Queue: 2 jobs
Job 1
Amino acid sequence: MFIQVLLRAPHLKSAKKYILARSKALVSQRSSHQASVIGAEKCSNPPSRGLVLGVYADEHDKDDLGMLTPTAAKYNETYTNGALLDMLRIAGPMPKRGETRVFFNLEPTYSAVAICGLGTECLGYDPSEKLDLSKEAIRIAAATGCQELQKLETNRIYVEDFGHAESAAEGSHMGMWINQEMKNPDQRVYIPQLQLYYEPELPCDSNGWRIGLAKAEAQNLARQLQEAPANHMTPTTFAQNVVQILCNSGVNVEVKVRSWAECQGMSSFLTVAKGSCEPPIFLELSYYGTNLKERPIVLIGQGNTYDSGGICAKKLHALRDMRGDMTGAACVVATCRAIAALKLPVNIRALIPLCEHMIGCNAMKPGDVVEVKNGKSIEIVDADYEGPLVLVDALLYAESFGPKYIVNVSTISDHVLEAFGKVCSAVFTNSEDLWQRIKNAGVHTGDRVWRLPLWDYFTYQMCSVEHVDVQNFGKGQGGESCKAAALLREFLPCGQWMHIDAYNVMTTKGEDYPYLRRGMAGRPTRTLIEFIAQACCHNKNSKYL
Ligand code: MG
């Protein structure tokens, strides 16, 4: 307790001097997010319960005394008699966004309390950034606070809602996730249990927390699938995993094998697959959340469980992440699970072509020509541009479901990395409505998208040769992602369609988004979920219920 600590410091005449001295002594665990461990006395045993609270402050004013969130203020007054805020102010400038300070033994229930910076109150939507800064600040605060308490091996962490429970749940649950499936269980980092902290007298959005949890768990699932080494995650084992993951989820899974794909005339997909000994699989997921007569949204996820580049082999630095060339498949599976968990009133049909792109004796060669089901011929100019070839047959197959619209998620071109870095996924669409909706979804989730052109200029570059209808790598310099989208449009059944190229956001270094640790990112799963949720929940009262 605060008072007990003061009694242990008879040589100091004032509490303020003592706290200042202790603060200086205990500012020892300065993390990458500049968290500070400050407090009356550090625990000798790992704290069993930790609490994550927030503080608003002007980041440009070092003298700003800070204002605790309503939940933190209530905790401060009720349980610490104001000591929490006193110590926070004495310790120095208020924590900025991404910074955390940890206090120990303020009261008996929570042995460690992390105070996280949120910036100024009501940051809100920034139109130039196309981002809701408040929600992003909450995700970062919740993640960094939990990560600091996790380092202390806290068993259970309680997180306040910071004014938006959905973002708090997202940040905390994504921030806790670590890729350690392949590590010896004895060596794994302990993952604390997370719970929403609330004061009974204050409003509590437990439904928002539930929604954020479903989205974060979906993104974590996508990360888990992406991270699995390619020798463990073949098309067959991916399908087995999906059957297990979606068991009793409300999503039906159909696993279709090579002979089925041959009967469907999926020559393009099978051409890519034949370079590997691993048999291709075509997964079909279905979810019925509303009237069976309502047309489904068709989601297509590119599922190359490994992409060597084929006979046009990639270099080593590019190969390292190519287990993630099934990002589209992982995002679509995770999205379906979240949609079912949230019981969204929508029908979904997900199509996931799974194969390895390898250099076997039957591998496709530059100059090969494939004829697909709609009669068009595709010439393989560059064997490393297999992504569109995998998606073409799924696009043609999608027509049989009479879709409301089609969304495919892929990792086709590294050129989007040059254009955007890791800030947003590239979107191509023939629908202004779909674009506005996915853009708004990205503002809400912080996982943004940006539209690239789907112009005839690129179609001409792909289709202007005499000997075939389309080439998989057109003429002209640059614009490869745009050209791939133009190719896909050639095989699109009528209707609204959106193509997402997420190559650049496949991985993260863990610096740009503090709630995602280094590794596979699972993006843009939450944006895809939000995009679908906003479309089917017009009635505010029925949203996500
Ligand atoms: Mg690829």
Note: The chain is about 35% helix and 20% strand.
Job 2
Amino acid sequence: MADRVYIFDTTLRDGEQSPGCSMTVPEKVRMAAKLVELGVDILEAGFPIASDGDSEAVDAVSREFPWANVAALARANRLDVEAAAQALRHARRPRIHTFIATSDIHLKYKLKKSRQQVLDEAVAAVTLAREYCDDVEFSAEDATRTEWNYLEEISRAVVAAGARTVNLPDTVGYSVPEEYAAMIGRMAKALGDAAIISVHCHDDLGLAAANSLAALHAGARQIECTINGIGERAGNAPLEEIVMAINTRRDRLPFHTRIVTEHLYPASQMLASMITFGPQPNKAIVGENAFAHEAGIHQDGYLKERTTYEIMEPQSVGVPETRLVLGKHSGRHALGKRCDDLGIPLTKEQLDTLYHRFTSLADRKKGVRNEEISALAREVASETRPSGAAAD
Ligand code: KIV
Ligand code: ZN
């Protein structure tokens, strides 16, 4: 299907290799179970040559989830490819993902190799990987800073050698959407149906999700991403943002994924419990404030009709409910609703009195807790009990 987008999750590889994110093998297996439940299409479980732990994790994930597409990363050399193949030996649907840098800056300073040498090594690695499995992906590291004629030449060569997916990463998060889409469009035209074009964006300029989505219009059909956007430096493209952008704006993004979106928040929480940090509070989709409203005008609109201020239902991403945060910007409407919810219904006059006491407290604090609201509401209710009402 032309509009199906494959989600390649690299939380356990690119995500895990960043500061504060390392996971033990059992943690990786638990996280992999969540990712499988979430419905990711390909699960990159590690970089086997990098460490015994990575190799064991790829093996453990392959055994535990035999029906999943499990990928292992390898640089474009014999030792790496063989290590990946060995770690994947129990996978029923293995993918060897081999890569080499293609930009002149990497060739000159890092690899100290010519373009022809790099092309030959890429072809040799793909050819060797194909001896172990049918599903081989090639990544041209730093593709966005690579000269386009050379990028096309190497892409064609690896496909001729048997690569089924060609990934064109924005390794250093340097590209902007229009430019990335143009590059992807050029390579998609060159490769036609011979391979799936994949994108892999880093977030150094905060554009990873935007670049990934722009690439879809140009022909990319696989997106590499991570839960909570963890990954090298500023991170990788956040899976939850990409999936919900596609789901929410199908009018502009006529694509679909197989992600079960109700598992997005639980997956984010599980990851946060395993690594040293969670998403920032204002992080889209999974941050603590993503479905919270404090401003009075917003709370009032939301209480009258949810869609005035919410473009997604919290439950659709597994967040239990919208939070109305009561602080100095909140209005009477939300305060009255909270009192009803707390079992202390107030008259209009009582609510007016409470509102003044509440705002003077809220002015001095970052937020007002339910217990404080209850105490104030009871105080007002007992002072201004409507005439004829019986005392407690
Ligand atoms: O960012 C990158 O280029 C990578 C490759 C190894 C795919 O992570
Ligand atoms: Zn990366």
Note: The beta strands are 6-9, 42-46, 69-75, 93-101, 136-141, 165-167, 196-200, 222-225, 292-293, 323-324.
